[in-house]
Design goal:
Blueprint: E1 6-7, H1 17-26, H2 45-62, E2 68-73, H3 76-88, E3 94-99, H4 102-112, E4 116-122, E5 144-147, E6 149-150, E7 155-156, E8 168-171, E9 188-192, E10 203-208, H5 209-212, H6 225-230, H7 240-256, H8 258-278, E11 285-286, E12 297-301, H9 305-317, E13 320-321, E14 332-335, H10 342-359
Parallel strand pairs: 1-13, 3-4, 3-5, 5-8, 8-9
Antiparallel strand pairs: 2-10, 6-7, 9-10, 11-12, 12-14
Helix pairs in contact: 1-7, 2-7, 3-4, 7-8, 8-10
This protein binds pyridoxal-5'-phosphate.
Pyridoxal-5'-phosphate is lined by residues 11, 76-78, 103, 147, 151, 171, 173-174, 192, 195.
């Protein structure tokens, strides 16, 4: 406990301490079974309950009904870039994608291998430092795809586009459940767990039944959403331990007061951090448009790369880890997912002020 640091890594990312402690407590003997959940059959009643409880708490947190399938897949959010296109874009259909950088680009690339992609808006003209506000949607599109939070550039959608009757699909890997949100606006939401939900190894999917019904194409078993729906994500062995951890993380979130409460904490965290950047007289410079600043991944630059390196090294000595920006952007990135307490940001801004005083 005494050795734990504030971990600002972008993903895999910090987990709530009570979750890790619960896992530790249950690790050798899961609820009186005399074995670890790691060693338990995925067909056992014990795991079946974990699986059902995890689906239930995901639906509860999102505030959605049984109209949405909750699915668990492997191979990360990246696999969904391909699966979405394979299931919904085959047979000459077209889909609209909004390009907000890195992850959107990868999603577009995979979709282009399957069907027609219309880039309905892009912020590449300013190196993805903003979220596009104007789009040209095709009313016949199979779906519209967005990345709700750009983990690398530090932008986040605050108001989602109105796509009319066309289903909206969102990659929410780095901001799912960070705030209140009307999830019923979405045809599909997916998130690799390792940022805001748990460990690497499982991707959580909410898929509306109407969209699921539109899936087509002759696909291999493991590439079809239909398989995950029919077999309750257990055609093959699911990532049991990752699913179990997601359950614990969402139970922890519920204990905190759910999305209402975490939104307030996240808002405090972001305003404290961005406030410190903005009142630094240019010593710290935010890299994206203010209105599109991410609550989850804050990006900033300093006067020189040397200074940034010193900042990262000095911070680490103070127990503030993982602040290096993505290699494609450079600078500093502060990842402050749900599991990062306000105290972590308070300590960071104290450090920032102190560092500025000594180096400004
Ligand atoms: C990290 C990330 C991904 C990639 O997730 P994997 O699980 O590694 O495939 C995709 N999209 C976003 C927004 C991410 O932050």
């Amino acid at each position: 406990m005494a050795d734990r640091v504030y971990n600002f890594n972008p993903g895999p990312a910090t987990l709530p301490l009570p979750v890790l402690e619960k896992m530790k407590g249950e690790l050798l003997d899961f609820q009186g079974t005399g074995m670890s959940i790691l060693e338990t059959s995925h067909r056992s009643p014990e795991f079946k309950k974990v699986h059902e409880d995890t689906k239930a708490i995901i639906r509860e947190t999102a505030g959605v009904s049984d109209d949405y399938h909750v699915l668990f897949t492997g191979a990360g959010a990246s696999m969904q870039f391909a699966m979405i296109a394979l299931n919904f874009l085959s047979g000459g259909k077209s889909a609209d994608y909004i390009n907000t950088g890195a992850w959107s680009k990868k999603a577009i690339k995979e979709a282009q291998l399957v069907g027609n992609v219309n880039v309905a808006a892009t912020s590449d003209d300013k190196n993805f430092t903003y979220i596009p506000k104007k789009y040209s949607f095709d009313s016949n599109a199979a779906y519209v795809h967005i990345t709700s939070n750009n983990t690398i550039f530090g932008t986040q959608w605050m108001n989602f586009p109105d796509t009319g009757n066309v289903p909206l699909i969102a990659d929410m890997s780095s901001d799912i459940f960070c705030r209140k949100l009307d999830f019923t606006k979405f045809g599909m939401v997916y998130a690799g767990a390792q940022k805001n939900l748990g460990p690497a190894g499982v991707t959580v999917i909410l898929l509306h039944k109407d969209l699921a019904d539109k899936a087509g194409g002759e696909l291999n078993t493991m590439l079809k959403y239909g398989t995950y729906i029919e077999k309750d994500s257990m055609f093959n062995t699911p990532p049991c331990f990752a699913i179990y951890t997601v359950k614990l993380v969402l139970e922890w979130l519920k204990d905190q007061g759910g999305l209402d409460a975490i939104e307030k904490v996240n808002d405090k965290k972001q305003s404290l951090l961005y406030g410190t950047i903005d009142s630094s007289g240019g010593f710290y410079r935010g890299t994206v448009e203010k209105e599109d600043r991410s609550w989850m991944n804050a990006t900033m630059r300093m006067g020189s790369e040397e200074l940034e390196q010193t900042f990262i090294a000095e911070a680490k000595k103070q127990g503030l880890h993982g602040l290096k920006g993505h290699r494609s952007v450079g600078g500093i990135r502060v990842s402050m997912y749900n599991a990062m307490p306000l105290a972590g940001i308070e300590k960071l801004v104290e450090f920032m002020k102190d560092f500025q005083q000594k180096n400004g």
